[in-house]
């Protein structure tokens, strides 16, 4: 990587005061974040806690559910986000800018709103089932997936897709439209233009957005809690259940340590990927 | 541009509408519509009422809104001070020092919020720091969760800053603290403002760590939305959620107005 002028300018001799100035914020962080984290690790080391938790069915189920939900949500968001961003960027319509703004606003709302809305749409007495019973006269409707992992998956895909759309739109704004025009005037079909011109440009943004969604869906709590699904337990809800409902702190700390290890590992990967994506441009 | 026939374009738009409307537009509209209804078991809600809002703006819900606003404002302010300070300090360090400091301050994003809640609960329920049961434990956890975002956006703005201003000021004999106060901070003001908005919105909607920590007398609005939904009062929950969204958007709007006004000056 070539040093920019800014780097050269900043590469002045490090004086002791510069390090001293870094001390107060680091001390605050250590007190409010690193010290609590260390205590969680210490608590998880209570004799027998790891063997007890890691061997339990509740933990193994939660781990399996968490991983497949996160993987499913990531794939879903990538596919959906790519299609939406493609149309927004390259087949613009009146109001497509407003839609892009709306997606930004969507990001500033809490995740549990999506689940709350889905309860009205697909819940046992919601719109979809109401329409069905109204039309067929049956006692209850066919939509009964909200309290299953599929309901959580649908909510997570809805909530996290904007996190893929945003970097994709940024990447697509760098695509030279003249290139697209040239390709299609030479007779390339849209599918081929997408594959050969747009896809390579989208890859870094897809990788970065996808790994961010993976980390966030591993750690999602509000959506799972709001579904009220007793059958769906993920690692974060297991931490909550063990600590608050059962007051079993050593077990909660063990689950938390596993969850932290999983998500910091993936987040480090995300940082690496997005840094490379940034350098690629 | 990509699709040249009118028919192809219409197909693309139809696909977009088909995916976008039910997934993104519908949820917000549904919550909004439900907050004015008493019953919803068909295509449209029925029993129009404003009663949910009447209960949402008094007593416990109003208290919860105030709690959320105070928590979010305090946490954002603390996060801005710590995050911006760390970003500025990192900027003055060498390349390696900056890396270490950035990694340290970004760590809370990677740690699940529930785990942050648990960690704060464990650490501040035992001596020497007893904060459990007070409002400060909630504010502390929110600060931890949003500081990373403040640090990241101020750090990104610092890297885009033209070093010429700082050099010019320094070459004219301005002391570092003076440069910071009169040159750097004013230039960073727009990104500090944006960071404040981000932190505020995140803290307003925070549920995971809050659920682990909240004492009975410091109940933020998202917790109330959850308890209402959990006991089956979906319509009341919707009204509370709309109040939460509206309050968040109003503050974000005010912050962005402030930003554009400062830019015009």
TrEMBL record, chain A:
Keywords: Cell inner membrane, Cell membrane, Membrane, Transmembrane, Transmembrane helix, Transport. Residues 63-270 form the ABC transmembrane type-1 domain. GO terms for biological process: 2-aminoethylphosphonate transport; transmembrane transport. SUPFAM superfamilies: MetI-like (SSF161098). Pfam families: BPD_transp_1. The keyword Transport applies. The chain crosses the membrane at residues 20-41, 67-93, 105-125, 145-165, 205-229, 249-270. It is found in: Cell inner membrane; Cell membrane. NCBIfam families: PhnU, PRK15050.1. This is 2-aminoethylphosphonate ABC transporter permease subunit. It comes from Streptomyces solincola.
UniProtKB/TrEMBL annotation, chain B:
It comes from the Bacteria. The keyword Coiled coil does not apply. One of its GO terms (biological process) is transmembrane transport. It is found in: Cell inner membrane; Cell membrane. The chain crosses the membrane at residues 12-37, 65-88, 100-124, 136-158, 187-214, 234-255. Residues 65-255 form the ABC transmembrane type-1 domain. Belongs to the binding-protein-dependent transport system permease family. This is ABC transporter permease. The lineage of its organism: Bacteria, Bacillati, Actinomycetota, Actinomycetes, Kitasatosporales.
